[in-house]
Amino acid sequence: SRSINLAVIPGDGIGQEVVAQGLKILSAVLPQDVKLETEEYDFGARRYHATGETLTDADLEQLKQHDAILLGAIGDPSVPSGVLERGFLLKLRFAFDHHVNLRPSKLLPGVETPLAGQPEIDFVVVREGTEGPYTGNGGTIRTGTPHAVATEVSLNTAFGIERVVRDAYARAQARPRKKLALVHKNNVLVHAGHLWTDIFNKVGEEFPEVTTEYMHVDAATIYLVTQPERFDVIVTDNLFGDIITDLAAAISGGIGVAASGNINPSGAYPSMFEPVHGSAPDIAGQGKADPSATVLSVALLLRHLGYETEAARIEDAVSADLAERVGKPARTTDEIGDALAVRVAG
Amino acid sequence: SRSINLAVIPGDGIGQEVVAQGLKILSAVLPQDVKLETEEYDFGARRYHATGETLTDADLEQLKQHDAILLGAIGDPSVPSGVLERGFLLKLRFAFDHHVNLRPSKLLPGVETPLAGQPEIDFVVVREGTEGPYTGNGGTIRTGTPHAVATEVSLNTAFGIERVVRDAYARAQARPRKKLALVHKNNVLVHAGHLWTDIFNKVGEEFPEVTTEYMHVDAATIYLVTQPERFDVIVTDNLFGDIITDLAAAISGGIGVAASGNINPSGAYPSMFEPVHGSAPDIAGQGKADPSATVLSVALLLRHLGYETEAARIEDAVSADLAERVGKPARTTDEIGDALAVRVAG
Ligand SMILES: CC(C)[C@H](C(=O)O)[C@@H](O)C(=O)O
Ligand SMILES: CC(C)[C@H](C(=O)O)[C@@H](O)C(=O)O
């Protein structure tokens, strides 16, 4: 009989509320014969304040035993900027080699977009997750003096680029439009940019059916708001991916519905699934958070574990729920979760 | 009697066409007693192909003699990516210490925006122009092998940050709303990010009337499309500034109307003014390019040289011209220039 052994990290702020709904939908959608085991972990601001720890080696050892990880949100104003981000989120992505950071953007019917004319938006960003300017490499000298100098070093390897580029080509190949865009800034960041571009072109030879284009990151932000229908699959570096996926979320219904997967395709470590939004401390505990992004992250999680039918069922449910919202009074986090649970079970 | 000694660099593609209109408007707007001298320089793809040169020490020596520089656009597909960008554009910005890269965004009446609901957009981005990941620092080893590694180093100094931050505060202080946002990514790029944040807070003590906020660059892209009216002045790093100013241009009428100044406020070197758009080789020579961005860059140039009345006259003319376009057939580059020349002279 089948089973899923899931690590659950509700985290901070609205993380608690949205993860509860994610689990509700997961239980509702899974076939009877699949045994779901969950173990909750208390990472985030509370643990940090209580123990000073963000993510220890022992924690990683424990997390490693699971099939996948569901995360709500990490981050709180009471913790200095960077501590939980670097000490937990990025540490986990790096430790478990989550090199495919997958962020689909689809403007669903009835969902509001800040763009005029309700454009067709249906693309996925494959963001590199373990290299670039995210490695923490750099430092500061003469801190606090007028002579301070700070550096940030972006590290890029052929190994790291090639595997994520190949993953993106394969995803493009599997989609009807078969289009792949590389987003970088190879006219300025020439060292990393040329490495990315060369590998992108080389790997492309293995995928003759995929149509490719190259686009500078600044130009990409223009096209995302003027011609979003142009995009099918985008592959990009860790930092550019961070920036353009927030913009992509904004144009396709907002971060309330933006899901993401931090994927290790080899399966050597569990992959982690999380909404793109943060912990939103300003609305935490009020039942105002939209759990859709987390629920859609659960769909990505199920797809990753091979439950394609169930993943699609969740996506259809969210899509139908969003379409029904138009003109209706706002519901609580819990009410939305309940409605989705009914839909996926039905 | 007053005089302006201007270096003119039409450059590549549509650069030629739009600069011609910029000069037309400059001549038309200047009072009789101002003597305008211009000297044209042939930098860009042609010169590079003919001589292999992009910008020599002798060129810089000559350019230095001018009061200001007007640039069309540099770049051509026949030149490998990065050669003209690094070898000319960035070399000039760095050599002349253009640390204030000024990019105003204003959605003028009648101008189309991809955003729904015609929001109020009127802000200016002060982009640092001489540091960050733009210094060219970095390298590649084992090029062309599976073991290649490429780095990019972002260099940030207290000196460089403080001067641009102070400039941005002064600009915010001089505007009615007196708001300043720092855009960075200090939760991930902690070394540079904390240096920027610390200096931003410190300098802020000198400007008690200015309201400040900090925003991550990814979040900034969301707010730019969902709440652009939120912004008044933004100060940011070289790369983040590159990215968000293209997005800012896109939402406020497109790069056809986005002007910029590469300013050295000390006056030690001439400042350079250029449209944000590139050389657009696909439409070059067809009279299709909108010269408005270049004409608005001429307004920034005049303001920098102390001709405030004339700068405002140009801005009003462009605003009126754009408002009149609605529903009319497209005009040529030259026709738009002629119409603007009549307006500013009138
Ligand atoms: C919180 C932060 C470290 C993170 C990132 O920059 O990757 C977030 O913005 C994201 O996109 O998941
Ligand atoms: C052409 C390129 C070097 C330049 C930059 O990145 O600064 C351009 O995008 C700009 O914004 O002026």
Task: Explain what the structure shows.
Two copies of one chain form a homodimer. With 346 residues, chain A is an alpha/beta fold. Chain A folds into two domains: 1-99 and 258-346, Isopropylmalate Dehydrogenase; 113-252, 3-Layer(aba) Sandwich (Isopropylmalate Dehydrogenase), CATH 3.40.718.10. Chain A has eleven helices and twelve strands. Chain A has helices at residues 15-29, 45-51, 57-63, 83-95, 158-173, 190-204, 217-226, 238-251, 292-304, 308-325, 333-345; strands spanning 3-11, 35-40, 68-73, 100-106, 122-128, 138-141, 149-157, 179-184, 211-216, 233-236, 259-263, 271-275. In chain A, the strands form two sheets. Chain A has a ten-stranded mixed sheet with strand order 2-1-3-12-11-4-5-10-8-9, with helices on both faces. A two-stranded antiparallel ribbon of chain A has the order 6-7. In chain A, strand 8, helix 6 and strand 9 (211-216) form a beta-alpha-beta unit. In chain A, helix 1 packs parallel to helix 11, helix 9 packs antiparallel against helix 10 (308-325) and helix 10 crosses helix 11. The two termini of chain A are 23 Å apart. The model of chain A has no long low-confidence stretch (mean pLDDT 97). Chains A and B meet through helix 4, strand 6, strand 7, helix 5 and helix 6 of A and helix 4, strand 6, strand 7, helix 5 and helix 6 of B. One 3-isopropylmalic acid sits between chains A (85, 89-90, 242, 276) and B (187-188, 218). Chains A, B: Its cofactor is Mn(2+); Mg(2+). Chains A, B: The record marks 134, 185 as: Important for catalysis. Chains A, B: Its main location: cytoplasm. Chains A, B: Catalyzes the oxidation of 3-carboxy-2-hydroxy-4-methylpentanoate (3-isopropylmalate) to 3-carboxy-4-methyl-2-oxopentanoate. The product decarboxylates to 4-methyl-2 oxopentanoate. Chains A, B: Keywords: Amino-acid biosynthesis, Branched-chain amino acid biosynthesis, Cytoplasm, Leucine biosynthesis, Magnesium, Manganese, Metal-binding, NAD, Oxidoreductase.
